[in-house]
User: Fold this.
Amino acid sequence: MAATVINVGGMTCNHCKMAVEKALKTLDGVQDASVDLDAKKVSIEYDPAGVDEAGLKKAISDAGYDVY
Ligand SMILES: [Cu+2]
Assistant:
């Protein structure tokens, strides 16, 4: 299992937090995703055999948020 933290822009409220977490958790290989709204970051635990960091970032941007 791998863990990463990705900076996400455009999240302003609890709805955004849920949307980003849901987008990530529906990916194969993602074990957990947890947004820190104040820090504008999402912590992700994932299986590198199922998804890579590029895939995680794509899911976030596909959900309508900016990835840094
Ligand atoms: Cu929002």
Remarks:
- Helices lie at 14-25, 53-62.
